[in-house]
Amino acid sequence: MIKIEAYIREEKMDDVINALAAIDVHGITCYQVMGCGSQHGVKGYVRGKQEIELSLLPKIKIEVLIAADNCENRVVETIKKSAYTGENGDGKICCYDIKHVVRIRTGETGPEAIRPSD
Fold first, then answer.
1. CA 100 to CA 77: how far, in whole Å?
2. CB within 8 A of 60, min separation 6: which ones?
3. Rg (CA), the chain
4. Residues 6+ apart with CB under 8 A from 52
5. CA 112 → CA 65, 70, 100, 102, distances in Å?
6. Which residues contact residue 56 at a Cβ distance below 8 angstroms, ignoring those fewer than 6 apart?
7. Distance CA 3, CA 72 (A)
8. Average pLDDT by consecutive 10-residue portion of the chain (118 residues)?
């Protein structure tokens, strides 16, 4: 089992979620987060006059659990294509091995715990 985390621009969230749904990926969790990478923030203005440095930028963190290792590349490519703008700050994708998963309601474990239930 694999956990995929993607840090993307806020405005690309709907595109990514729709693209994942199109390849039949369910069980998506989204968070509003703040962070900086190679962009190191942007300059902004308060009341149109005073310049300030915004070092942490708003991003969306998307988490997806997938049961089959062979789906990992397809999910990563889908996120990459749907989140791409070609500018700094497009984000990052991280993949992790998951040791154990339990569905609380039914007690199912492993890949069965993350498959859609009836």
1. 25
2. 7, 8, 9, 10, 12, 13, 30, 31, 32, 33
3. 17
4. 43, 44, 45, 46
5. 12, 16, 11, 9
6. 34, 35, 36, 41
7. 9
8. 96 97 93 81 68 81 89 95 94 95 94 84
Query: In this structure, which long-range contacts are made by residues 15-20, counting pairs with CB atoms below 8 Å and at least 24 apart in sequence?
Result: 15/82, 15/83, 16/62, 16/78, 16/79, 16/82, 16/83, 17/62, 18/82, 19/78, 19/79, 19/81, 19/82, 20/64, 20/75, 20/78, 20/79, 20/82
pTM: 0.84
The pLDDT of residue 79 is 98
